[in-house]
Amino acid sequence: MIGLGLACGAAALLPARGVGAEQVASERDIVNLRLGQRILVDDGTCPTGQIKQVTGAQLSSAGVVRRVECVSRQGARR
User: Fold this and answer.
1) Smallest Cα–Cα separation from 38: which of 48, 30, 47?
2) How far apart are CA 75 and CA 55, in angstroms?
3) Where are the domains of the chain?
4) Is 43 left (phi over 0), alpha (psi -120 to 50) or beta?
5) pTM, 2 dp
6) What are phi and psi of 26, to 5 degrees?
7) Residue 78's beta-bridge partner residues?
8) Can you spell out the DSSP letters for 4-29?
9) Which residues contact 14 (CB under 8 A, 6 or more apart)?
């Protein structure tokens, strides 16, 4: 009985890997990027198996500076 409860509890944590970054189809769809926010952009510009990640990296006088990089798709799909 306890083993079943532990297995169910562990399974409930698995979907949480992809949480924390929303996904959009185009970088133009990103409005009001906040400092530290991560958004996944599935626009096909990254190599196979990777997805573009846009991060609000730094605060400047002009607003939030974006950092763009390709990251592994693992855990990013919904």
Assistant:
1) 30
2) 17
3) 2-72
4) alpha
5) 0.67
6) -145, 145
7) none
8) HHHHHHHHHHGGGGGTTEEEES-GGG
9) none
Work out the number of other CB atoms within 10 angstroms of the CB of residue 7.
10
- pLDDT at residue 45, as a whole number: 96
Maximal CA-CA distance, the chain? 58
How do residues 2-37 score in pLDDT, each as one tens digit? 554 545 454 444 443 445 679 999 999 999 999 999
Q: Give the list of residues 6+ apart from residue 35 with CB closer than 8 angstroms, or none.
A: 56, 57, 58, 59, 64
DSSP-derived 3-state class of residue 60: strand
User: Per-residue confidence at 58, pLDDT binned at 50, 70, 90?
Assistant: very high
Identify the bridge partners of residue 54 per DSSP, sorted by sequence position. 39, 68
DSSP state of 2: H
| Residues 26, 17: Cα–Cα separation, whole Å | 22
